[in-house]
Each structure stands twice: as C-alpha cells, then as structure tokens.
Amino acid sequence: MLSGMTRRALLLGLLLSLPAQAATPGLSTSPPPSIKASLPAPTPAPTMTPPAPTSSSKAAPAAVPGTPILTPRVVGRFPHDPAAFTEGLELVGGVLFESTGLVGESSIRRTNPQTGEVTQRRAPPSNKIFSEGLTVLNDVVYQLTWQDGLVYLYDAQNLRSLGQLRYRGEGWGLTNDGKSLIMSDGSDTLMWRDPDTFAVTRRVRVVDRGAGITNLNELEYAGGSVYANIWLSNKVARIDPQSGKVTAWIDVTNLAREAQAAAARAGRQLGFDDVPNGIAFNAARGTLLLTGKRWPLTFEVKLP
Ligand SMILES: [Ca+2]
C-alpha cells in the first residue's frame, strides 16, 4: 500500500515525463500547432509568395498582416493575336492600343478590343528596334524601346509619326496619370516623366513591407493606383503612387493556365517568357483587360 506522499511523488513523476516523451527527435523539427496557426496562410501558388524582407524573418513578426492577395473574376474573354509579344496595352476611346516587342517583330497597333482584330499596325523606323511599353496622353502615343534610349511619338488617330525623344537606360513599361508619363525600367523604381521633354520629374521606389520589388514591367494607371506586371511571374502589383507601397497582389495564375490550355488546343505551347504582360483599364466598365505575351486570349476581369 502506497502512502499519499508516494502516490503524489509517482503522479508528479508521470506528469514530468510527458513533455519528455513528446520531445522525441522525430517531432522536434515541427513547430507546435500554436506557432503553425499563427503563420501566414499558404499562398495560392509559389510565384505568389511576396518577397521576404531582406533583413530576415526576425524583422517580420507573424502577427503583422500580409499584403492582400486578390484573385480576379473573369467577366469576359476576347481573342488576342497569338503572335503578339505584348509589351504595352491601353484602352483609349474604344481602341485597344498594343505594343509588341522582339527584334524584327516589333510593332505598334490599334486593335478592336472585342474581336482582337488589328485595324492598324506600324513597325518601328528600324528593324533592329525592340519595342516596349506604350501609353496615350493628349492624343499622342508614346512607345518605349528596350535598349535604344528612344521613345517614339505617334498620332493616336492614325499612328502617323510625330518624332522621337531620348532617355537614358532601359525602357520597360509605360502609363500616365493624366498629367505625367510613368515609366518602369526593370528595377524597383517608377519614374514620372514630363510628356513634352521626357525628363524625369519624380522617382518612387516600389516596396512591399520594406522590400524593393524589382522587374516592374507593363504598367496601368487606374483608380488612383498603378498596376504593374512583375516580369516572369503571375503577379500584378497594385501600387500606391504616392508612397510606392504595394497595396495588393493580384494573382493571375488561373488566367495564365487558361491561356496555356487555349494555346495547347491550338497545337502550341507557351514558352517560359510568354508571361502575363498587358494591363488596360476599361474606365467605363470598371474592369481591367489582362493578357500576356503570345497569349491567344485577353481577359476582362473585375477585382474583389
Ligand atoms: Ca497598360
């Protein structure tokens, strides 16, 4: 018969042994459930993981809410020239302007947004030019070049040449806020430029929770935000133009998959660089038109 003291000692010994049993080598690498529950939810696709803060995860407590990830709702699908290596897209006055890249294939186009028909097309002055982003301001189309330091100006009504301006560095994406041109060059910085001289008037670094976001590509100014395709990803950043902060990520993985499937049905495969690139705001409908390089479709989407 055990004394009360002995029973308490045995019970205490049993209780003390439980944590030791739980801490077996096989379990020690998994964080306790309470820690897992406090980690951010898994993102829809690997490419949607926002870049980690450069200063290490210690600087980002799990309690800090992440930047919202939005999944667009498709409300329309339209044909898109599967040969178009899209570098710029903008809807003005019912005309969908498109710029396409690659040496020997570059062009500027006026297209029908409903049918995808190219109603007018112009090649750059030299067949060595790689065209990039485009925007339309005050009836003038501005079209960037990748590494030639030239922006071509065209009459938006008929694509008649209006000359050219020069800049330093690479040209990637272009849009405007009604007063200034806004340009990307593959870095994490957006540049505001004077439409008459193309001089830089302002620079803003794009950041998500302190980390610079590089590879900013095709741009669109809509509803007070700048939207940017992130090159070689299924991410579109929604950026506050004042602070440069990413206010949301738009996950276009489903659109990329559907474009890939549509291309496969037509007997071809999209390549690694046939990425989402092309954002045009339809102000009348409050929607965005999204496409990609050599995609057979342009999607009309609403954001949640
Ligand atoms: Ca655009």
Task: Walk me through the structure.
The longest helix is centred in the first third of the chain and has 19 residues, at 4-22. 36% of the residues are buried. The N and C termini lie far apart (71 Å). The chain has a single domain (83-302), classed as YVTN repeat-like/Quinoprotein amine dehydrogenase (Methylamine Dehydrogenase, Chain H, 7 Propeller). It has a five-stranded mixed beta sheet, with no helix packed on it. The protein is built from three helices and 23 strands. The radius of gyration is 26 Å and the shape is globular. The chain has helices at residues 4-22, 33-38, 253-265, and strands spanning 69-70, 73-79, 86-92, 95-100, 107-111, 118-122, 131-137, 140-145, 150-155, 161-166, 174-176, 181-183, 189-193, 200-205, 207-208, 211-212, 216-222, 225-230, 235-239, 246-251, 276-282, 287-292, 297-302. Strand 18 (225-230) and strand 19 (235-239) form a beta hairpin. It has 304 residues and is mainly beta. The structure holds calcium ion.
Secondary-structure blueprint:
Layout lengths: L3 H19 L10 H6 L30 E2 L2 E7 L6 E7 L2 E6 L6 E5 L6 E5 L8 E7 L2 E6 L4 E6 L5 E6 L7 E3 L4 E3 L5 E5 L6 E6 L1 E2 L2 E2 L3 E7 L2 E6 L4 E5 L6 E6 L1 H13 L10 E7 L4 E6 L4 E6 L2
Parallel strand pairs: 1-20
Antiparallel strand pairs: 2-23, 3-4, 4-5, 5-6, 7-8, 8-9, 9-10, 11-12, 12-13, 13-14, 15-16, 17-18, 18-19, 19-20, 21-22, 22-23
The structure holds calcium ion (CA).
The site of calcium ion has 9 residues, from strand 3, strand 17 and strand 21.
